[in-house]
Amino acid sequence: MTAATESGPVRELHDRAAITELIYTVARAMDSRDWDLLATCYAPEAVGDYMNADVDGREAIIAGTKAFLAPLDVTQHLVGNLQIAVESDTASTHATFIAQHVRAQASGSGQYILGGHYDDNLRRTDEGWKITRRQIRGIWDNGDASVVTIPVT
Predict the structure, then answer these.
(1) Which residues constitute the domain of residue 42?
(2) Contact at 8 Å (CB) between 143 and 111?
(3) Residue 142 sits in a domain of what CATH number?
(4) Which of 47, 60, 62 is nearest to 131 (CA)?
(5) For residue 150, what pLDDT is reported?
(6) Number of domains in the chain
(7) In angstroms, what CA-CA distances link 39 with 42, 54, 68, 139?
(8) Residue 2 maps to a domain
């Protein structure tokens, strides 16, 4: 029996494991600057609601993420407290994050930390679970905001 043919609690456990892996893969792809891997996490029609910008489509999400993160020397996104609700071929998740951003060329300490929430909608595809909508909400920050606000050079 495969995950596609399973039903009931076993299928839900497989779904939850796959969704958890997907959410963690997004963080790993961002921190490793693996834009191809990041693209595998989103459906083509995905949308993003990112505190200061709305993004429409997987390609735009990847381009925006790359433009934001590529100038930084290093990032580390820690994701936890993941809650998952699965309903047939759709799901929603809520997770908390702490994201460390480091940029030596910043005007201050070069370190900026943001904490907040990821809220995602997902759907099951032939290639596995994909994010169809991601909302990012920062709820606290600390450090040198110039790390993420100085122009890209």
Answers:
(1) 8-149
(2) yes
(3) 3.10.450.50
(4) 47
(5) 65
(6) 1
(7) 6, 17, 15, 26
(8) no
